[in-house]
Design goal:
single chain; about 190 residues; alpha/beta; Rossmann fold; seven-stranded mixed β-sheet; 6 helices; globular
Length: about 190
């Protein structure tokens, strides 16, 4: 395990139906680089993934969304899949968490259908980004500069289109984390 991200803590915001590989791929890369990845969810105990067209594994929720403190994290990861972002896109608590990361200018990494969360959170702000292609009109209507690229980085926002893009997504996310200041560790965190 590398220590390039030692002491960094990442929040992965998910709801039932998140695309499993869009969580596990980045989480493994982040952990291998020395970071800690916490699952944050509106679910309080476990959250169920979606994998290859069927329900996947259940994962332990580390921090219930209502208890999540954005100040305890260095970055935010939002995996896609259709179900998870669609279920959370009207969740005001999720909006506030996302907005806090953007306000603090911390890296936010979003893949596939995850950008739906950015639209409803009101943080697009003319940014250049990518997503699963079916979201392009939604994103353009929300004032995004949507492009069809493997990975796009704009002002700390890292976006990718689909599971096949995960290696490039991971590389860009880790590079952004290395460039960003580390949070100050509070007692007991």
């Amino acid at each position: 395990m590398s220590s390039q991200l030692e002491g960094r803590r990442i929040a992965a915001l998910v709801e039932d139906g998140f695309e499993e590989t869009e969580f596990t791929g980045p989480a493994e890369a982040l952990r291998n680089a020395g970071a800690r990845v916490d699952i944050v969810s509106p679910r309080e105990d476990t959250v169920k993934s979606w994998s290859h067209g069927n329900w996947g594994r259940e994962y332990q929720v580390d921090v219930p969304l209502l208890s999540a403190d954005p100040n305890a994290y260095d970055a935010l990861l939002i995996p896609g899949g259709v179900r998870s972002p669609d279920r959370m896109r009207r969740n005001h608590t999720a909006w506030r968490l996302i907005q806090a990361f953007f306000t603090a200018e911390k890296p936010v990494a979003v893949i596939c259908h995850g950008p739906w969360m950015l639209i409803d959170s009101g943080v697009i702000d003319g940014r250049r980004l990518t997503s699963y292609p079916s979201l392009q009109m939604d994103l353009r209507n929300a004032d995004a500069d949507w492009v069809d690229q493997q990975v796009v980085v704009d002002r700390g926002l890292i976006t990718s289109r689909r599971p096949e893009d995960i290696p490039a997504f991971n590389k860009a996310f880790i590079e952004q984390l290395e460039r960003s200041p580390q949070r100050r560790v509070a007692a007991g965190s």
